[in-house]
Amino acid sequence: MISIKVELTLKSPLHIGASAPAGTKAVRGMLKDAQGWPYIPASAFKGRLRHTVERLTRSMERSVCDTHHQTCESAQSACPVCRIFGSPWVTGSVRFCDLTLTQPEIWNADYREENAYPRTGYRHGVGISRTRRVAQDALLYTTELFQPGVPLVFSGELQDVETLVDAAWLYAGLQFMESVGSNRTRGLGWVESRIQVLQDSAVITPEQLRQTLEVSP
Ligand SMILES: [Zn+2]
Question: Could you list which residues have their CB under 5 Å from ion ligand 1?
Answer without folding.
Answer: 65, 72, 79, 82
